[in-house]
Design brief:
alpha/beta; Rossmann fold; 6-stranded mixed beta sheet; globular; binds pyridoxal-5'-phosphate
Length: about 475
């Protein structure tokens, strides 16, 4: 399997999985995708049904990943999957259990990992893949990132203790929830450096860009990233679409739909890949909160990115985005993989005008029938209603992001087709909103008891590039 860039870089030879694993963007500024999607037939799906039943989630993960990853033997890949998705790491041995709810909905639980958000599903595998490949190259990596909450902690829990990996994670001082802060700052590990920047999330991102833009410095300290455009993260997410489909269906051609709370278009992009591979997915329901950039596109064909100041702070904060970093991948497929048009939109129109318009094109007209996409958005009041409704009707407590998906899913339920809602976090991470919706705080899983009382490991830093560089140098032993 070889990979190409959405912007048509004439790479020769085209890179393989391991070449792009440690990269972010392609050199032409585009995103990597496989040359073509592997195609599934019902016989393969039937075999995977048996594998999941008999051997569990890691074995299914190996079967799926082996379609995308060359140059690793089956036993090695299996060992990495077993370690990423072990019962020591995830609190449920099924890894992705699925429950039936009232009204044709199902809930796929993706938040049983160490940081109680679905980002663990991809990040845990990424930690294993990075360690494996760095050892094979006899190399090391310094991950430099910025986080407003879930990504940073998922990365730290996945990368800690991995040979050759060091993490510097910037957070906006005082702006994450106490639980999110405690999750990261309680980690006591010399290779994990938490940094509280005197600024907002955008300042943190600008610092990362400035430091990574100094190529000499970047090279010297082997700086890398784990952001949501990383292809390996997406491919890890394809696995749970297949697992959830297997858990809900009984026949190998039975169709289901998925409802996905969406921010950077990573999670739902994996659903698109699964559908392109031939997994029997009827509809992909994209749900946003009040920050409805993507809902607007799927309703109108107009993609209008917002400025940071236009982006609202909502009660489903991990979906407060102004532009969706993975969206270019979907547009590439929507436009029949025409990289010249993608380049014109993402390197021309968007930076210049902040908007592009596909309304009236035959490609956009096919977004529902050929690609299965529908969308909707949800408000704070909708979230509270969905949380309290599921609590009363099903005795199930969901977090505010999952509630956005439930809200939009209910508008698109077809009684003939199971609708699987992807749960993206545990309610304990957002207990304030849960209390507002139900009048009580969610139960705290035993593994998180006392988290906020643990000693904090975090370095305060001014919003200053040179100060950050000095810290990286010092902590890297220079
Ligand atoms: C990251 C995140 C999302 C959004 O996922 P994308 O892949 O960015 O679309 C939704 N919910 C939670 C809890 C998240 O952490």
């Amino acid at each position: 399997m070889r990979y190409l860039s959405t912007r048509g870089l004439p790479d020769d030879p085209r890179p393989g999985f391991w070449d792009i694993l440690l990269e972010g963007l392609a050199p032409d500024g585009g995103l990597y995708l496989p040359e073509s999607y592997p195609q599934l037939d019902t016989a393969t799906l039937g075999r995977w049904r048996q594998i999941l039943d008999a051997e569990g989630y890691p074995a299914l993960a190996q079967a799926v990943l082996s379609l995308f990853i060359d140059d690793i033997d089956a036993a090695q890949l299996r060992a990495l999957c077993e370690r990423a998705y072990s019962a020591e790491v995830f609190s449920d041995p099924r890894i992705v259990p699925v429950d039936e709810l009232d009204g044709g909905l199902w809930l796929a639980h993706l938040s049983n990992g160490p940081t109680a958000a679905f980002k663990d599903m991809a990040m845990q595998l990424l930690g294993q893949l990075f360690e494996f490949e760095l050892a094979r190259r006899d190399s090391a990596l310094t991950i430099l990132g910025a986080t407003s909450g879930d990504t940073g902690s998922a990365a730290e829990y996945a990368m800690r203790g991995r040979r050759g990996i060091r993490v510097f994670m910037l957070t906006p001082a005082g702006r994450m929830t106490p639980f999110q802060q405690a999750q990261m700052f309680s980690l006591d590990d010399p290779a994990i450096v938490n940094i509280a920047v005197d600024g907002v999330f955008d300042d943190c991102q600008d610092l990362v860009k400035a430091v990574s833009g100094d190529l000499e410095f970047k090279h010297r300290y082997r700086l890398g990233a784990v952001n949501s455009i990383n292809w390996a993260r997406l491919v890890a997410q394809v696995v749970y679409y297949i697992a959830a489909w297997l858990r809900v269906t009984t026949a190998d051609d039975q169709r289901v739909s998925f409802a996905v709370p969406t921010g950077n278009f990573g999670d739902i992009m994996a659903g698109h890949v699964a559908r392109m591979m031939g997994l029997p997915i009827d509809t992909l329901v994209l749900a946003t909160n009040e920050n409805d950039v993507l809902d607007e596109f799927f309703r109108t064909g107009v993609y209008r990115i917002r400025s940071a100041s236009e982006t609202l702070a909502t009660s489903s904060p991990s979906m407060d985005i102004s532009k969706a970093s993975n969206f270019e991948r979907f547009i590439f497929d929507l436009l029949g993989r025409d990289s010249a048009r993608v380049r014109e939109l993402f390197a021309g129109r968007l930076p210049e005008d902040g908007v592009f318009d596909l309304s009236g094109t035959p490609e956009f007209a096919a977004v529902r029938d050929r690609f299965g996409f529908v969308s909707g958005s949800s408000t704070h009041a909708d979230r509270l209603a969905a949380i309290s409704d599921l609590d009363r009707r099903d005795g199930v407590l969901i977090d505010p992001h999952t509630a956005d998906a439930v809200t939009v899913a209910r508008r698109h339920v077809d009684p003939q087709v199971p609708m699987i809602v992807l749960e993206t976090a545990l309610p304990v991470k957002f207990s304030q909103t849960i209390k507002e919706a139900t009048g009580r705080r969610p139960d705290r899983p035993a593994r998180f008891v006392g988290l906020e009382e643990k000693p904090r490991h975090v370095i305060d830093l001014p919003n200053d590039v040179e100060a950050l560089k000095a810290l990286i140098a010092e902590r890297s032993g220079d």
